[in-house]
């Protein structure tokens, strides 16, 4: 890209190993350096003009991000093992005895993906953002479920799921156990099928707690997906607020032209 006509460049103030990590990561994710390519230490030090220690730290960062893996000859080979998330699939209901569709797809790729229900609580005073999203009346309670998603036993995402209390009171959702087939299936059975969803996706720096639980590699941000699902009459029935380790996920949206909202 020719930036000669653009504004003056500001020198990158990041440490050298972080800059090299970022450049190599871009080469991998853009496909310039495809899976199976061996990243040879000596070649990189010469090409990048960096010392051995700096290149080693950069390669270690890429390995921590699951973008590379050790090669038989002691070098590193490009792997790129991010999981593709298809949000539309996650809201598709299935039968009560069937497993959650997205988990099935991930497990077919050889990844042991699992949800763990950490806690369920009733909120007498839900956060203002949730009150607005669920269109709760003054004094109306909400139910909050805390979930942890793991890949091969390693933390990958923290998910908060909110419901209006009157919808889920007395159901399996307040029973403090996972629901086979997923929450969309239960809501559909209760008469609240998810007919459309609105996602707000942002990137953010993790909090200390998030960084500790998700065991994030150095400099890796979080993807945050705030989703509101609407049912019949355009009533909001569920809000999910998920923070995902950005080095483990990519989001895939499929849509066609439609009337603007």
Describe the fold and architecture.
This protein has 261 residues and is of the alpha+beta class. The chain has two domains: 16-78, Arc Repressor Mutant, subunit A (Orthogonal Bundle), CATH 1.10.10; 83-251, 3-Layer(aba) Sandwich (Chorismate lyase), CATH 3.40.1410.10. The protein is built from nine helices and eleven strands. It has helices at residues 16-29, 41-48, 52-64, 87-90, 101-108, 128-134, 165-168, 183-189, 208-214; strands at 38-39, 68-70, 76-78, 83-85, 113-123, 142-151, 154-164, 196-204, 222-230, 236-245, 249-251. Strands 5-6-7-10-9-8 form a six-stranded antiparallel sheet. A three-stranded antiparallel sheet has the order 1-3-2. Strands 4-11 form a two-stranded parallel sheet. The model has no long low-confidence stretch (mean pLDDT 85).
Summarize this structure as a short list of keywords or feature phrases:
six-stranded antiparallel β-sheet; elongated; three-stranded antiparallel β-sheet; Chorismate_lyase_/UTRA_dom_sf; single chain; alpha+beta; Arc Repressor Mutant, subunit A; Chorismate lyase; 261 residues; transcription regulation; 9 helices; WH-like_DNA-bd_sf
CATH topology annotation of the largest domain: Chorismate lyase
The CATH class name of the largest domain reads Alpha Beta
Secondary structural class: alpha+beta
Average the pLDDT over all residues and give the rounded result: 85
């Amino acid at each position: 890209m020719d930036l000669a006509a653009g504004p003056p460049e500001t020198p990158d103030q990041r440490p050298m190993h972080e800059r090299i990590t970022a450049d190599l990561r871009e080469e991998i994710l853009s496909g310039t350096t495809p899976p199976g390519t061996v990243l040879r230490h000596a070649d990189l030090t010469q090409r990048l003009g960096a010392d051995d220690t700096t290149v080693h730290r950069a390669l270690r960062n890429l390995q921590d991000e699951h973008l590379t893996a050790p090669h038989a000859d002691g070098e590193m080979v490009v792997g790129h093992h991010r999981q593709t998330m298809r949000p539309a699939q996650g809201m598709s209901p299935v039968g009560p005895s069937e497993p959650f569709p997205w988990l099935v797809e991930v497990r077919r790729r050889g990844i042991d993906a699992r949800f763990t229900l950490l806690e369920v609580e009733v909120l007498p005073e839900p956060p203002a953002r949730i009150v607005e999203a669920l269109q709760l009346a003054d004094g109306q309670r909400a139910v909050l479920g805390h979930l942890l998603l793991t890949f091969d036993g390693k933390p990958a995402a923290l998910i908060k799921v909110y419901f209006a209390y009157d919808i889920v009171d007395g159901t399996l959702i307040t029973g403090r156990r996972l629901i086979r087939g997923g929450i969309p299936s239960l809501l559909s059975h209760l008469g609240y099928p998810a007919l459309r969803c609105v996602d707000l996706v942002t990137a953010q720096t993790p909090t200390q707690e998030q960084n500790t639980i998700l065991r994030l590699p150095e400099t890796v941000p979080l993807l945050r997906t705030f989703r509101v699902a609407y049912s019949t009459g355009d009533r909001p029935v569920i809000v999910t607020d998920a923070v995902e380790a950005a080095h483990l996920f990519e989001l895939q949206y499929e849509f066609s032209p439609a009337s603007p909202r």
